[in-house]
Amino acid sequence: MSTQQLPEHPDFLWRNPEPKSSYDAVIVGGGGHGLATAYFLAKNHGMTNIAVLEKGWLAGGNMARNTTIIRSNYLWDESAAIYEHALKLWEILPEELEYDFLFSQRGVMNLAHTLGDVRESIRRVGANKLNGVDAEWLEPDQVKELCPILNISDNIRYPVMGATYQPRAGIAKHDHVAWAFARKCDELGVDIIQNCEVTGFLKDGNRVVGVKTNQGTIHTEKVGLCAAGHSSVLAEMAGFRLPIQSHPLQALVSELHEPVHPTVVMSNHVHVYVSQAHKGELVMGAGVDSYNGYGQRGSFHVIEHQMAAAVELFPVFARAHVLRTWGGIVDTTLDASPIVGTTPVENMFVNCGWGTGGFKGTPAAGLTFAHTIATGTPHKLNKPFALERFETGALIDEHGAAAVAH
Amino acid sequence: MLLISCPNCGSRDETEFHYGGQAHVPYPENPNELNDREWAEFLFYRDNTKGTFAERWLHSTGCRQWFNMLRDTVTYDIQAVYPMGTPRPATAAPNAAESGTASLAADSTTTGTAGPSIAAPSTSATSITATSTTQSGTTAPEGATK
Question: Measured on CA atoms in the order A89, A91, A96, A101, is the torsion positive or negative?
Fold first, then answer.
């Protein structure tokens, strides 16, 4: 691996228009999912008279805060299908969007530290292969070969007993992904309206007919919610509930280092995931803070815990320094799977619940959600993820099943 | 790191506690009469309040007792601590000084009863925040057994 040159900024990215008084559809949330949805609405469904409303600045929420890991090695068929579709889109999007956002398919390794981990991992490799997802089981010496800085010795608390490996997985430049979508949206005529906070909805009976914002009222036939951690707040404004709990999820980076880490390593058991960004920072994340929070910050002991895990697995990191830590607000569900589909409010659609792993799903979330908004019906990939599953009991329980970070 | 005032043990670091989610969610009175929608509500739907939130905490490495807490989910300020089984107190003043969040405090190592008093005295009679640190070591408040 060598440090890659970052792509040049294009001369022009997007306009900053004033909101019109009405649109055919309004997307609430100008992060990755909102922009991808708008892009596919315009490209696949010819809906160009649409707007993306963003209360802050474009892609300044979780899109700016994630650890950029892209993989599709999920256990269950439904998850594997949608995440693998996302991965296939990631593979073609740089060309399609005419913007190299440095999708680096350096592989993702999910370590196993206990016999239970080993069994679950081998089972998942089998499930992945049956679903057409590239997956391998690695013995500890193969782990070491792929990632020489990993400590595979027996004298740590949770020795590495092997790993699953998905070679096509990797990382991408998250900001550039957002800008790539935003530029194409703009080209296709989509209005991207920043600093536009939704304060309420206009309804005619049970049908949504408009959006109230701090920049005035916007009439629309359809509303798509892509607000991640704030989905519950919007749903409440619209008059329905979501089975979502918002938690802080923290991440951190070190200062820049020479390339030392050739892949992405995740450990469910000691709980850390690490990659090295293109510029050279070590990027780490772990689990959510236990309490509900909208504060975009969490508690330090969570950081301390993940660094302890990282230093045990990667002794070479002991002399690195934490440069920055931050938090995002993630929208978790009890089955750790997203919610995409219709809502109890007519013509209002929701895409949320991606929790700690929404970045990797961005293209497939956008593609399938656009289909749902345009046609009013589920896409075959998002159908299992409908809100109704909490009533029918057809949960897609991915907790712990497909590695640490969902 | 939150600095949480256990009603029995006084101020302790968040790491001693376990989060229990939304408070005041009763088990259905007549479970046999619930339809699928109502079961879904009970099992999977909880409030996800942005602002003051009533939630349960367990002092798992201390007295092992559950208690309720009012906490702002944006600022993380702890506004009241009160026993299980008692109603939610009226929301404390939004900017209660010296409140329990230690995320911005320089020193989060304060433990035991010598910690700063938690939250301004609440107007609510059911709030025990003002007296919580002096209750340390005494009997558990009524209703705090589960």
Answer: positive
